[in-house]
Amino acid sequence: MDANSTSSEIVLNVENLNVYYGDFLAVKDVSMKILKNKVTAFIGPSGCGKSTFIRCLNRMNDLIPTAKVEGKVIFENEDIYDDVVDATEIRSRIGMVFQKPNPFPKSIYQNIAFGLKVNGFAGDMDQAVEKSLKQAALWEEVKDRLDDSAFALSGGQQQRLCIARALAVEPEVLLMDEPASALDPIATLAIEDLVRDLKETYSIVIVTHNMQQAARVSDETAFFMVGENRAGYLVEYDDTQKIFTNPDNEKTEEYITGRFS
Known about the structure:
The structure is a single chain. By secondary structure, the chain is of the alpha/beta class. It has a domain at 10-103 and 172-256: 3-Layer(aba) Sandwich (Rossmann fold). It has helices at 50-56, 87-93, 108-118, 125-135, 139-142, 155-168, 185-198, 211-217, 240-245, 250-256; strands spanning 10-21, 24-35, 39-43, 67-75, 78-79, 94-97, 173-177, 203-207, 220-226, 232-239. The radius of gyration is 18 Å and the shape is globular.
C-alpha cells in the first residue's frame, strides 16, 4: 500500500517543502506523510537532499544562516514553522542523532543528564539516566563506569550514548542521519537492532546510503534523486518491500538494482 494513502496514524505531514541555501534550491517540492511507530528510510545518491530534508523535520536548518524553508511540516496538528512555535521545544520532541557520534566532553552520566537539566527535569535523575541507557542497549556496558569520560567509549558505544541522550528527554520522533556510517560492521548491526526495538515506542526516520540497511530496518522507504539544477526531489515513497521488489518508478528500480548512472 502506498505510504501516502495508508490508514496508519501520521506523525509528520510534510506539504510542498522547498529548501534554499541562499539562492540555491537544494530540495524541491517534497510532500510526504511519515507514519507513527514505523521506521522510514531515506535513500538516494549523494547530494540528493536527504540530509537537508531530514534536518527540516525538527528545524535544525534554522541553525544555518543561509537556509530558508518554504512549505509546511505538520506535527501534532501544528505547522512547526509557524511563528508561534518554539524551535527548541520542537527539537526536544523530535530528537536527532547525527552521522558521527558527538558526545559532550563530559562523563557518560552527565551526557544523559545534561538535556534533562536544560529541560527542567525534576524527577529522579539516576533513574532517568539508567532508563535512557537501557533503552539504548548500553546500560550493561557502562553501569559501573558512569563517571568515566564519554570519549573513553568505543565509536559504537558513543553513538548509542548519543541515542540515549536524545531519548532521555522523551521525544516522540527520532531522526537519524546516517547513524552507522562511521561505525564498523558489528557496531552497525547493534544500531540496527536498536532501531528495530525503538520503533515500538518511537517514530523513526533514518537517512542511509546503505540500501541493505534500509531494507533490513525500515517499514517505509523514500527514494530521492538529484534533478534539474542539482535540486533534490522525491521520486517515490512506499512500503519498503514494494520499493525493493516492485517499485513504480523506473529510476527507483535502476538505483536499487545498481544500474543507476
